[in-house]
Each structure stands twice: as structure tokens, then as C-alpha cells.
Amino acid sequence: MGGAFRQKANLPEQSQLAHFEQTVLSNLDAAYNLARWLTRDDHDAEDVVQEACLRAFRFFDSFRGGDSRAWLLTIVRHTCYTWLRKNRAHEFVTFDEELDNIESGANPEELLLQSIDLQSLRKAVEELPIEFREVIILRELEGMSYKEIASVTGVPLGTVMSRLARARKRLQQCLTPPVAQEA
To answer: How far apart are CA 146 and CA 135, in angstroms?
Structure first.
């Protein structure tokens, strides 16, 4: 593999490796963070990130520059989904458009910022369907723009916005204590 890899890139092997390390490995924290939230397990996340890095190295000659973090997170996402389909197929639950309809009212972000226990928030995020969990993690923890999230997830910008809104709505529902009704 080394010879073909070196020829395609027209760089000596050490330069190619240094370029890979500079471009990809600098984003390992973000890669682990996404994998950890998608797999919900430290060890599984480490395995996924390791596999994703091997894939990134294998296909590094196809990287044409640009946002290396988005490129690596796309690979991590695909690797996570492959791993989850193989090891936890039951987690791929589709959501119901009618049940997840966004109602008008208070801004979910404002409601979330109210007194929320961090452990409750973590549990609520982990219980989100994977499509919602990944966009929340990419937006809120990784600080990615909607456009970057669309690139990583391979879905249209409108779908990213919709998934974020639905995820926030579900978090709001999970984290807002029920209002006691007067008798």
C-alpha cells in the first residue's frame, strides 16, 4: 500500500505521513467525542475511532483539502453507523413525523438553559434517536455550522435544521418537569 499511496500523492512516505498526522490526527478529540456520543460507550468509541483513522489513512489520497475536521467526522460517522448496524441494530429506530411535530411556543434552547441537572441532560441526550443525537453533538459540543453538519451527515441543510429542532424539542420534553395541575 505504501508505494501506491506515495505515488498518488507524489510525496515521500514520511512527508505523506506527516501531512496525514497534521491534517487528521489533530481532530482526534472531536472524532472521539462524536463516536462516544453515538456509541454511548468509551471502549466502543475508541474502537470506532481507531477503525475510522485506519479508513482515513487508507483513503487519505482522496482528501482534496478543505475542512479536515468535517472530512474526518464524516468517516467517523459512517464507521459508527456501520459498527452500530453490526452490533446494535435495535438502535436504528425511525421517528414518527406526527409524534415529533414541533409545536410553537417557548424556545427549546431557552428552556434547556434553565436549571438543568447535567446528569439528566447527558441521559436525555443519550436517549435521543441516533439521527437527533449526532446533530446535537455536532452543533452544541463540536460547534459546527449547519452547513458543516449537512456535509458530515450527508443530509440537506433543511433536514439538519429539522433534526436539531426535533432533538431540542425532545430534550425540552425530557428535561422539563411536569406541571402540577390544580384540583
So the answer is: 9
The model's pLDDT over 113-138, given as tens digits with 9 standing for 90+, comes to 544 566 788 888 889 999 999 999 99
Instruction: Report yes or no on 139 lying in a domain.
Output: yes
How far apart are the C-alpha atoms of 1 and 91, rounded to whole Å?
Answer: 36
Indicate the residue type of 179. Answer: V
Calculate the CA dihedral of residues 152, 157, 124, 182 and round it to 10 degrees. Answer: 180
pLDDT digits (tens, 9 = 90+) for 4-43: 444 444 445 667 788 888 888 889 999 999 999 899 899 9
- What is the rounded distance in angstroms from the CA atom of residue 70 to the CA atom of residue 76? 10
* DSSP string for residues in 6-40: HHHHTS-HHHHHHHHHHHTGGGHHHHHHHHHHHH-
Q: Which residues of 98-134 are buried (b: 16+ CB within 10 A; e: fewer)?
A: eebeeeeeeebeebbeeeeeeeeeeebbeebbbbbbb
Q: Is the pTM of this model over 0.90?
A: no
Number of structural domains (the chain) is: 2
Q: Is 154 among the domain residues? A: yes
Q: What is the CATH classification number for the domain harbouring 47? A: 1.10.1740.10
